[in-house]
Amino acid sequence: MSQRTYHHGDLRRAVLTAALDVIATEGPSALSLRDLARRAGVSHAAPAHHFKDRAGLLTAIATEGYDLLAHSLAGAPDLRERGVQYVRFAMDHPAHFQVMFQPDLLRPDDPDLLAAKARVAAELRAGVEKKAAPAEEAGLMGMAAWSIAHGFATLLLSHNLDRQLEDRSAEDIFRALTGLTFKSPAAPAAGTG
Length: 193
Known about the structure:
Elements: H1 11-26, H2 33-40, H3 46-51, H4 54-74, H5 79-92, H6 94-100, H7 111-129, H8 135-157, H9 162-165, H10 170-181
C-alpha cells in the first residue's frame, strides 16, 4: 500500500472539506464514507476512525456550522443585523446550513453539537433581549425573527428569490423586508377613530 493510505496531514479536515463539497453540489444524501476516503486519498476505513459513521460525520459538520454561526452572530449590534448575519452565514456556508437543520441526519445527543447549538441560541436570545421586549413576548419575538431569517435564507439558497433580488444584495433586501415586517402601525390621526 502507498504511504498516503497510512498518513495524512489532517485527515479529519480533509474528509470534512470533501464532505462539504459533496453536500454543496449533490446534497447530504449523496455522502458515503467510502467515497470521501477516495476523494481524500486515504483507505476506505480511515474516515470511520474520526467519525465512526455517516451520522457522526454529519454531526461534526453541523457542530462546525453552529460554531461558525455563533461566531457570526456575536458581532451583530442588534436583532436585525443578527438576521443579516444569519442570512450571510447561509450564503457563505450553504453545505453547513443544509445539514444543521436536519436533525434526522444527526446524533441529537452529541455533547459538542448540543454545546454549539446552545451558543447559537444564546446569541439569538441576546439579540431579542436588546429589543427590550417584555418577557412574555421575547420568546415569540425570537421565534418570529428566526423564522424570517431562516425562511429568507432557505428561499435564497434554493434560488427562489433570484428574480426578486435583481441587482440588490440579499442583505439589503433582508433589511428592507424586516423593516416593513416590523414597522409599527401608524397612529390614527387626531379626530379619526
